[in-house]
Amino acid sequence: MTNDALQLGQATPLPASPEEARLDRVPNPHADTDYCARFTAPEFTSLCPVTGQPDFAILVIDYVPDRWLVESKSLKLYLGSFRNHGAFHEDCTVAIGKALAGLLEPRYLRIGGFWYPRGGIPIDVFWQTGAPPTSVWLPDPGVPPYRAR
């Protein structure tokens, strides 16, 4: 993939939905090394599929890349495309994890969705591809248990 094919460096509107969004990947210049890359989205939003009210979450995505890295602008646009997308917390979190795992084919990927309360109950959702490589340091997600985050 050439940089011309990427969304990076171009004016790119926010996609209207996750189905319209495009995740880009770039070659990993350190594919011979195990390391953890983390993306944190502290202002993730989607819509409740029942009420249409906004839902808010902190997403923490950790992955150990193999041949590919996710291009961060495309990830930001992809996550932003959920703003008008109606789905339950579990669906949003797991769908994002599966989309990234399918695109990147990482050695390991985990996502934590730390959702603010809906109906008085916070719903936190965690998904991973399997066991992490033993050679990699995976830090704590850094999101405290719910106490009015």
3D structure, described in words:
The mean pLDDT is 93. The N and C termini lie far apart (40 Å). A hairpin with a 6-residue loop joins strand 2 and strand 3. Helices cover 17% and strands 28% of the residues. The longest helix is centred in the middle third of the chain and has 16 residues, at 89-104. The strands form two sheets. Strands 2-3-5-6 form a four-stranded antiparallel beta sheet, covered by helices on one side. Strands 1-4 form a two-stranded antiparallel sheet. With 149 residues, it is of the alpha+beta class.
What descriptors fit this protein?
NADPH-dependent 7-cyano-7-deazaguanine reductase; preQ1 synthase activity; two-stranded antiparallel sheet; four-stranded antiparallel β-sheet; oxidoreductase; single chain; GTP Cyclohydrolase I, domain 2; alpha+beta; 2 helices; cytoplasm; NADP; 149 residues; globular
